[in-house]
Amino acid sequence: MTLNQRIIALAKSIGGDVKALIEADGDLTELTTAAKENLVVAINEVRELASQSSGAKIDDSATNGATTVVWSADKVYDAILEARNELKNELTGDAGAALDTLGELADVLGNNPNFATEIARGMAKRVRVDAAQTFTTAEKQQGCNNLGIGNPDYDFVAGYNTAKTGA
Q: Which of 116, 114, 91, 117 is nearest to 104 (CA)?
């Protein structure tokens, strides 16, 4: 896989994760309350459940699998915060604080949606030592000028013949 393909694959992978996060935002399918569209009604439903004689009680030490226990609002908030931090750590890995958000990454990349393509294009015009490459005459000339070796298409035979005649 080429560097260009790997960079594009990385960008697509990040894009897929961002899309999944955006799509999951507000996904209430796993919420066990009947009032999924109204937070106040859902909280009241949980309060009612906790006060019923069914044995349901607020218990922040309970695990997710407990069916007769309800977490407090603080416990729910802490669980959401912990899950968010775990997801952020998965997405950012060992990135330092300066690069641990998508906004910071976008800033570093200059908010350029074509960053991967432009970097790959630029990398493709670097002189390789492990494979043959094709360059235009102007690219060869610039490369030789950068290296201080002159014209890549210089006709040494003509130069020799001119020197031989003493001109």
A: 91
